[in-house]
Amino acid sequence: MKNRRDFVQLVISGAVGLGLARAVDRTQAPPIIPVAGAATDDRAGWIRRAEQLAKPVLTALAERKLKATMPVESQTGVNDRATVTHLEALGRLLAGLAPWLELGPDDTAEGKKRMQWATLARAGIDAATDPASPDFMNFTTGSQPLVDAAFLAQALRRAPNELWKKLEPRVQRNAIAALRASRVIQPGESNWKLFATTIEVFFHSIGESRDEVRLFEGLRKHRDWYLGDGIYGDGPEFHWDYYNSFVIQPMLLEALDVVAAEVEEWRLFHEQEKARFARYAAIQERLIAPDGTFPVIGRSIAYRCGAFQALAMAAWRRLLPAEVAPAQARVALSRVIERTLGAADTFDDRGWLRIGLAGHQPALGERYISTGSLYLCSVALLPLGLPPTDSFWTARRTPSTWEKIWSGENVAADHALKTSA
Questions:
Q1: pLDDT band per the 50, 70, 90 thresholds, residue 369
Q2: For helices 212-224 and 193-205, what crossing angle results, to 10°?
Q3: Which of 15-24, 41-50, 163-172, 287-296 has the lowest mean pLDDT?
């Protein structure tokens, strides 16, 4: 193989040969996914969306041409996102696809796809962290790099074999140096505390020295910011948005998974957080209407179906509450994924995401949102980390709580989580 371009083209051609969807879905309002009958090919539809998101980002990065080719859409008058948007795209995309890639290669068509995308992902991590690469990313300048260094660290923890252990030692050293460089950025009094926590937890998981203050401050702050009924404040106050799902609950639980055994206070908090996480997942399942719509409330709504990371993660981690069957979560998530990624003009002519929720709606983009930011939608795909034989995929489709109640079914009343949890 003569050069990097030959390598990338070989991987891409293999993916296309396996049926990679290239056409942009122009459906204005995707049809409601029915619940009648047995489970069909829901997983295949999710994989098509995963590949659609991955293709422009990872193929460009593997060729070390991401900065040269990726558009930078942002709010009118905002011109500083080009310094941060590329790390956003990589970290956020991989945070969602990591569990699927971690299943590893096998002889099935899907297993071969995983192998090809994992190979491209590792090449992308190399390009992003190699100081000699034209796609070497910003981990230090401004405040935004802390956020997306954390999403990258989260991805590496979610796929320790495929995205970390299979990296060449040189690339591992570069990645550690890049993530460590983000320590110059101080997180504010908000969910940002957990970005610093997540990076330090990753260092701990690979045997690198951790910054105790940065790791534990995020845990202590959020323990104090708990408001009740499965909801944390984004800082000391309540914000009606989806940040409990975008950031807070997933990063908090994953950090506590690692440190819970160290002392009793973290073991107790871990048990409390698992109960709170399940409660929040139950709330999220009830928010999704049969047509895949949900309340458009709060900032960062352009992250689309990423608003339901908590429900997706609860399904992937088998933390769903008893009242939400896995197949029920699959139906709800499938609907919101298709509603937000299947609308007309969601992607541009080259396959890049555009700002919006149900199509191209640039007014929904706040000052801090640009093209790379949008790839946080990938976290709705976390259940792809469950094997195809798991009941999440094989069980018959089950009506959502919304459908059960509004069709007249006698469903048990909903109740708040006990304050002790």
A1: very high
A2: 130
A3: 15-24
Whole-prediction pTM value? 0.92
Type of residue at 145: P
Query: Helix or strand or coil: residue 320?
Result: coil
- What sign results for the dihedral spanned by CA atoms 296, 74, 340, 329? negative
Q: What is the rounded CA–CA span in Å between residue 205 and residue 249?
A: 19
Q: What is the DSSP letter of 30?
A: P
Burial 14-29 (b: 16+ CB within 10 A, else e): ebeeeebeeeebeeee
Residue 94 CA to residue 158 CA, distance in Å, equals 9
Q: Tabulate helix, strand, coil % of the chain (nearest 5).
A: 60, 0, 40
Q: Name the strand (E) or helix (H) holding 226.
A: strand 226-228
Query: SS3 of 237, please?
Result: coil
Residue 396 has pLDDT above 90, yes or no: yes
- Name, in order, each residue with C-beta under 8 angstroms of 409's C-beta and a sequence gap of 6 or more: 399
d(CA 61, CA 69): 10
Task: Please state, in angstroms and rounded to a whole number, the distance separating the CA atoms of residues 302 and 359.
Answer: 10
Nearest to 379 by CA among 302, 299, 303: 303
Residue 1, pLDDT above cutoff 70: no
Contacts 24+ apart (CB under 8 A), 265-271: 266/219, 269/219, 269/223
Q: Does 408 have pLDDT greater than 90?
A: yes
Contact 28, 346 (CB under 8 A): no
Is the pLDDT reported for residue 16 higher than 90?
A: no
Residue type, 140: T
- List residues bridging with 226 in a β-sheet: 232
Mean pLDDT of the chain: 92
Question: If DSSP codes are grouped into helix, strand and coil, which group holds residue 308?
Answer: helix
Residue 204, amino acid: H
**149: nearest Cα among 158, 140, 136:** 140
Asked whether the predicted pLDDT for residue 19 surpasses 80, the reply is: no
Distance between CA atoms of 85 and 64, rounded to whole angstroms? 15
The pair of three-digit structure tokens given for residue 54, joined into one six-digit string: 């991955």
Would you say 77 and 369 are in contact if contact means Cβ atoms under 8 Å apart?
no
| Contact call for residues 382 and 99 (beta carbons, < 8 A) | yes
CA–CA gap between residue 30 and residue 53 (Å, rounded): 18
Q: What DSSP assignment string belongs to 146-172?
A: HHHHHHHHHHHHHSIIIIIITS-HHHH
Cα–Cα distance, 261 to 92 (Å, whole number): 29
